Queue: 2 jobs
Job 1
Amino acid sequence: MTREYARWEGSQTSRERGHRSFEARAPVAREAERRGAVSIMARLRDRLIDELTRERVLDASEDRVVAVVAAFVERVLAEEELGLNDSERERLVDALSEEALGIGPLAPLMADPAVTDILVNGPHRVWIERGGRLEETGVSFEDDAHLLRVIERIAARANRRIDAASPMADLRLPDGSRVNATLPPISPDGPTLSIRRFGRRRIRLDELERGQSIGSGMRQFLWEAVRHRQSVLVSGGTGAGKSTLLGALAEAVPHDERIVTIEDTLELQLDQPHVVRLETRPPNVEGTGTITQRELVVNALRMRPDRIVVGEVRAGEALDMLQAMNTGHEGSLSTIHANSPRDALSRLETLVLMAGFELPTSAIRAQIVSAIDLLVHVERGQDGRRRITKVAEITGLEGEVPLLQDVFRFEATRFEAGRVEGRFAATGVVPRCAEALRARGADCPVEWFRATEGVRRV
């Protein structure tokens, strides 16, 4: 969410983070006040949601919802003569506002910029990923029904429905966070909720270098490669940082070029002034109206793009993307789930077959080799840190087998004290594209690729 909760966070202890409590100093008084707050919340929550639904305020702006909730609390407390001081009233307004806005007890986790994933396995089991590591929190819901209400409100604000007939949904929060929710019977132990959060600002290549996610030689080479229209495919596993790296690489695209981005969920944040963003559309409550990535790729070709950036290829749109790269849209970028650069090529071949055309393997591989120049593989290490582990160039075909040569790599040396130690290094191979880059005016000195250069121990 975009709303800050600094005042709330300042009043919490690290262990109690995520709970709305009316804290007193003495433990007995604190527990009594907590029970009183829960009782008031339970009485007011359903009444508030009914009123907001009746007045059609749930779809209003966040500030409007908060203002309506504050007025509701003042009116109800006056009617029922409940004795709460100003601080308690303020906290009650905050808690009810979060209930109305849809994320309930998860609000403090959403306010923490270090949290990248929130994983709710049930009302009393909430996990987060922070700094690349999973940890259990003290956050909890009252019961399955409370968790279900939060899921339903998230779905309602996204104009989607989730129930026993449709027990699974992919949703998006107003701040762009990606949400997946499941209900019984497909999750027999109860409702689940997974929230993938995205940073509110763009991570740049020089920041990745300072954070030791990329070596200096890698950064300079990739900047020049993207700027001078080399087509790049970023590969990696789930949560490895593919989208973050894709956005950082796109920083090198000149500002006088027209970029069309295509995503399942809007994540990319580009600085260029000439950007058109396209997003897929899931089916509506009647099961119609779906718009797929493949349709958007085909449509993007009619929009006079200089570059096409596909957030992730995962189905038949791979064929249309390759054709676009081979027909005048050089320098396009995308990501793919894979465990290595070689696996990325194999998976891309499989995705092309999902387009529904019976193409021979040799033709598909020829398309891939002609369209893609560089593969950049990113991994999340044992220590939870994300690093580029390989930059590889596609050099052609030997028979029907695509040839790859590593240009840069991360060489891990040991794992000690919870940290992976190693170095970024050039392999000594000068990529074939270096000459083409120089012909286009790129700064591409051979020193970048010497095996003794570009080494940085991390």
Job 2
Amino acid sequence: MKKASEIGLNPDAIEAQLMGYLAARFFENLPSSFETTTGVQQPTIAGELFLPECI
């Protein structure tokens, strides 16, 4: 196991980088959950888009 900083990631921004990565996969309609990592039966696209209601 390596530290985030050892592979070029900012350790203070790991969660933000992860959210950006997952959001990018969502908008490209790419799965982010797999049988080998989470045990799902088929690759799954994570997330849901909620838009604000216009007033």
